[in-house]
């Protein structure tokens, strides 16, 4: 039976969203489904701004960063009037299944919509933060690690040239996945993540001890501290001032910012996005709804949408152990 499927990208963009859209287009074509793309996230749903998606849209799409449907955050969608309007628009467009690619905020909105619309709702995790429970990784996460690693490598070059301390802030919202793995892959000297942050006073003592221990052993060499965003009070400025208070003055802060969201997706994100996009379409018309499609141990799974934000996704313990041995507790400070 032919179905009408709609897809949108919501919230922060992530490399691989286009790869996911491509997979959905091809899978819909094979299943003889009609696929529409709502532009500008939930704003497009409220404005009934959609375009048909056909095989013509897939040419050279898998390697493109960003999203051809564009993305946005939508305040109107957070109130009941906006949700009612969205549900009405889906009925008018005769949509059977809505696919939402985004993070937990997008999923919360989709779950609220399900209370007012009886169509099928499927979520696909797309965020560089990797903070969605129920899936090993989210679309865009691997590329963001690669971007952070490459940027930290470049920072290290100039840090070595001047034998300075550099503070590098990476994204992650309220999770340390990107900071931890970016720091490990770039061989940084210390990383600050929210999962283990107790207080600025406690953390600054640890950082200062590691800097002094390293320099006592090696002399005035460079030192790279990777910091997850939204962790240190007053950000990198606050951390710089804290170090200066401890007479460590050769400090330079660097915020990577939105560059982490851009770029062509790496192979892992293309594969994840393609797998999840195809799997989502395979569920169209089934009795599963209000779920996220994710991947665990390289197998696609379904997860109830509320579970994706109600549970806290833990950092990989092996990576945490490596962090302590190779970075944060590398030098004995007895």
Q: What would you say this structure looks like, in words?
A:
- By secondary structure, the protein is an alpha/beta fold.
- It has 2 domains: 4-140 and 265-310, Rossmann fold; 144-261, Phosphofructokinase domain (Rossmann fold), CATH 3.40.50.
- The chain is built from 11 helices and 11 strands.
- The strands form 2 sheets. It has a 7-stranded mixed β-sheet, sandwiched between helices. It has a 4-stranded parallel β-sheet with strand order 7-8-6-9, sandwiched between helices.
- A hairpin with a 2-residue loop joins β10 (291-296) and β11.
- α1 packs parallel to α9 (267-282) and α5 (141-162) packs across α6 (177-185).
- The radius of gyration is 22 Å and the shape is elongated.
- The chain starts with a strand and ends in a 6-residue tail after the last helix.
- The model has no long low-confidence stretch (mean pLDDT 96).
